[in-house]
Amino acid sequence: MLRIEKHAKIGIDPMLFMYLFEDNPEFSDACAAILEEVERGERVGITSSITLLEILVKPKIDGNQRAIDDYKHILTNFPNLEIIDVDVEIADIASTLLARYPIKTPDAIQVATAIKGRCSSFITNDLALKQIKEIDVIALKDIYGSMS
Question: Model pTM greater than 0.85?
Fold first, then answer.
């Protein structure tokens, strides 16, 4: 985990949970390694309350109630993971990010949450977010490459 060793507090994109839950062949191992470090308390994870919204869409489309219940339980009980609600300060930070960068609103909210949570990095797989200068955006591909 060379790229995130120096980061004690990391913002976590919902994709890390989705890749792990869906056993993504390319990225589930990298996601598991990052989330295990959070679980063990080696670093603190920060994510937005909209993460739950984003990870529940597919199981709801599929009508998979067990996955819905499991995902809710895992996310809301995950050790060393802080779930921060969207508030006026996050909306303000997100609007600044949207004004500066051509990114999507949910991504701006996630990154703004990490900034408000005083994270030194945001872990994602969205390469478009790497243009953001307000926080060190680290792509899973960067981490995955260092694990090989």
Answer: yes
